[in-house]
Every structure is written in C-alpha cells, then in structure tokens.
C-alpha cells in the first residue's frame, strides 16, 4: 500500500525521505573487507559482491558526505564518508599513472583491475567526491581535490576547444570520441570544488565549459538543444550509438534529463556569477524538455528523443525524474513562477506513486513507459541513489526561504 504523500513544500518531510532512502544502504551496503557493495536487488539483497565501479565508489562519497552535513547527529554517516573516500583513494587510484580504474574486482580486501580505462566522466565524479568530503570536514581531501583537478587539466583539457576530452587508455592515449556528458559533470564538479574552496579557478572553468556546451555546441544543432556526441573536432556525431540502447553513459538522442540537469547547473552558476544569459537559457532548456518529452498519458519524462522530435526511447529512468524535480524547485524559487511549482507538484505526485519503494526503501531505477518495473535490480553500476538524495538536498536548499 502506498502511504499518503506528505507536504513536499516543507523541508522536514524531504529530510525524512532522505533518511528513508539512506536506510536502504546503511548498514547493509558496508563490505567488511573494505568499501561498499554496489549491486542490490529491490529487497536489498546483494547480487554482485565483488564488482566495484568508479562512478558508484565516487557517488558513495557524495551520498555519505552530504548525509553527514545534513544529519550531524548521525555519526555513522561521516564514518561512511571516510570509508568511501579511503576506498576510492586506495582501491581505484593508480599511484603510478594517477588515473582511476573504471572497474575493479574486489576480493578479500584486494583489488584486481577489470577495466583500467580513464574516463573524464569518472574523474569528474572523483573531483566531486573530494569536494564534498572536504565540505564534510575530511580535511585531507583538499589536497586530493587539487590533484584531481590538475590531472583533468593535464590529461583531458583541450585548450583549443575549451572543453574536456572524454576517454583515454590506461597510459593516457586519448580516444577521438567527445561527449557533452563528461563536460556537464565536470561543470558540476568544478562548482562543487569552488563551493568547497572559494578558489576562482574552479568557477572560471565551470563557466567556460557551461558556455561552450550550452551555447556554442548547442548552436551546431538548433541553437538550443544539446546533442550528446561529437567527433574529435567537436563537430556533431549524429550516428554514435544510434543502434545501441544498452550504453547507459552514452545514449543516442537528445536527453531531456540532461536538459533539466544543465538548467539546474546554470542557476547554480548564476548564484556565484550572475551573468545575464544563464537564467533565460536555464528556463528554455527546462521548458523544452517538458514540451518534447513529458508523457501526457502515463506521466513522467521519456528517456530520449531524436532530431525529428520523435521519442527514440520511451522508457522512464529514475535520474531523469529526479533531476527534473530538483530543477523545477530551483527555478520556482529563482523566478517565483507558479508554473515551475506546478511541475514540482506533478512530479512529486508521479514519483511518489511509481518510483519510491515504500516497502524496502530507495527508488526503483528503470520503468517501462507504462511505469511497470520489469527488473528487480534496484542499484546496478552507478546508481546508489546519488540522483535521488542529491535532488532532495537541492529541493531543501530551494525551500529554505
């Protein structure tokens, strides 16, 4: 039975929902041999106790560091944050190359590298992790934050284009693929680094990348929409992964969830640097996502649509709804417009009904268009409810006033 939804215009019910979500992971996620388990069934059963993915390892730092700041009366959360940072540093990092292994096999307290590829997307989350660890009071993370940013600058920054490359081999040979997703999360990480340190270099980098993706690269399509994939000269690659729906990090098509995620990042940038183009761009991206991807029949935002505006993937992903929910609140608070708060209410009603596992905790990961859960894997690689708890913290901040 689905309980009656609380008033999500109040901060306390959202804080309680965060705790309900965290209870799914603590303490069952703790691996006695080190770090945390990453792969969970809907009921909390661990279905892969050995694989460790860099994205999940870094996101765990965010999850527990933010929890430590918002619930200071729960000392287990800062303990978990330290545990997560230590695992990220000791297990994933290659002290010789400075890189972070994309995927590990962890057994009996020892890591075997499965995939040593260096991803800028992964390093962006490492940078984000150290920034949030530092804000939670883990002082040694400050030096690791600097080290990671310098590594990204040295290995992935393309000065001629003012954007980051995407992927490199273990010995740092760059792939010709270029993607907006890594740059979006690099922007997020640089904003977090700035908020943790007040160092202007991080804000400068966030502004430059945000401008180049949401303005210059968007101008290569229709002037607004942000395409995902590019060639080595940053020209649009319309065919990359066109026929592959399995790549969760590089899906084909326009991603409405990334439109709303960028909108929120632009407003966050505006708080620190009030440039006149940021708010109009954020509103346009949000409005376009809902115009093109909202499902009037079953609710929720579709995953993707093509250049012809036809839906190319009608599945519903948790992160798309989460990012859009948080952005609706952020834009509602920033603009005072009732339309954003109406979307906020609509999304909460929809998510409360379909996405939240009221019995076991946390959110489901993936539903069909008709909102049917066809997989019992609640947290495969990369999830760990980073998007769900992160959205709640954004909303809490927006509701402060």
In words, what does this structure look like?
By secondary structure, the chain is mainly alpha-helical. It has a single domain, classed as Glycosyltransferase, CATH 1.50.10. 49% of the residues lie in helices and 11% in strands. The protein is built from twelve helices and 16 strands. The chain has helices at residues 11-25, 54-70, 75-92, 120-135, 141-155, 180-197, 200-217, 256-272, 278-293, 318-335, 338-354, 386-398, and strands spanning 39-41, 46-48, 51-53, 103-107, 110-115, 118-119, 157-158, 163-164, 167-168, 178-179, 229-230, 304-305, 311-313, 316-317, 366-367, 377-379. A three-stranded antiparallel beta sheet has the order 2-1-16, with no helix packed on it. A three-stranded antiparallel beta sheet has the order 3-4-5. Strands 6-9 form a two-stranded antiparallel ribbon. Helix 2 runs antiparallel to helix 3 (75-92) and helix 8 runs parallel beside helix 10. The longest helix has 18 residues, at 75-92. It is globular. The two termini are 34 Å apart.
**Unreliable parts:** none
Overall average pLDDT: 97
% residues in beta strands: 5-15%
CA-based gyration radius: 20 Å
Number of structurally distinct domains: 1
Structural class designation? mainly alpha
Spell the H/E element sequence. Answer: HEEEHHEEEHHEEEEHHEHHEEEHHEEH
Termini, distance in Å? 34 Å
Helix content: 40-55%
Q: What CATH architecture do you see?
A: Alpha/alpha barrel
Q: What's the overall geometry?
A: globular
Please give the order of strands in the largest beta sheet: 2-1-16
Number of E strands = 16
CATH class category: Mainly Alpha
Treating each run of at least 4 consecutive H or I residues as one helix, how many helices? 12
């Amino acid at each position: 039975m689905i309980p009656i939804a609380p008033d999500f215009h109040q901060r306390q019910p959202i804080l309680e929902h965060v705790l309900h979500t965290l209870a799914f992971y603590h303490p069952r996620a703790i691996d006695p041999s080190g770090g945390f388990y990453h792969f969970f069934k809907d009921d909390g059963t661990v279905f892969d106790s050995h694989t460790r993915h860099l994205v999940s390892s870094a996101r765990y730092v965010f999850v527990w560091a933010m929890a430590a700041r918002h619930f200071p009366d729960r000392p287990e959360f800062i303990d978990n944050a330290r545990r997560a940072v230590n695992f990220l540093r000791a297990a994933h990092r290659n002290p010789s190359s400075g890189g972070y292994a994309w995927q590990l096999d962890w057994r009996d307290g020892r890591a075997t590298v499965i995939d040593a590829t260096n991803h800028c997307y992964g390093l962006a989350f490492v940078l984000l992790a150290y920034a949030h660890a530092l804000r939670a009071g883990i002082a040694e993370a400050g030096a690791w934050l600097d080290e990671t940013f310098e590594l990204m600058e040295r290995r992935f920054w393309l000065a001629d284009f003012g954007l980051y490359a995407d992927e490199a081999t273990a010995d740092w040979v760059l792939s010709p693929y270029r993607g907006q997703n890594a740059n979006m999360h690099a922007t997020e990480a640089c904003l977090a680094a700035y908020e943790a340190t007040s160092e202007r270099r991080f804000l400068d980098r966030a502004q430059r990348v945000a401008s180049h993706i949401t303005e210059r690269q968007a101008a290569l399509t229709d002037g607004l929409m942000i395409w995902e994939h590019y060639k080595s000269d940053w020209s649009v690659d319309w065919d990359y992964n066109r026929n592959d729906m399995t790549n969760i990090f590089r899906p084909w098509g326009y991603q409405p969830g990334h439109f709303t995620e960028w909108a929120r990042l632009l407003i966050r940038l505006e708080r620190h640097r009030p440039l006149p183009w940021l708010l109009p761009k954020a509103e346009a991206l949000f409005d376009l996502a809902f115009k093109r991807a909202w499902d009037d029949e079953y609710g929720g935002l579709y995953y993707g649509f093509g250049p012809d505006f036809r839906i190319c993937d009608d599945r519903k992903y948790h992160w798309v709804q989460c990012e859009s929910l948080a952005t609706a609140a952020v834009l509602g608070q920033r603009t005072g417009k009732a339309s954003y708060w109406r979307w906020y209410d609509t999304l909460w009603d929809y998510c409360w009904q379909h996405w939240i596992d009221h019995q076991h905790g946390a959110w489901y990961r993936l539903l069909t268009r008709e909102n049917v859960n066809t997989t019992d894997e609640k947290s495969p690689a990369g999830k760990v409810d980073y998007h769900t708890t992160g959205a709640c913290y954004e909303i809490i901040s927006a509701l402060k006033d």
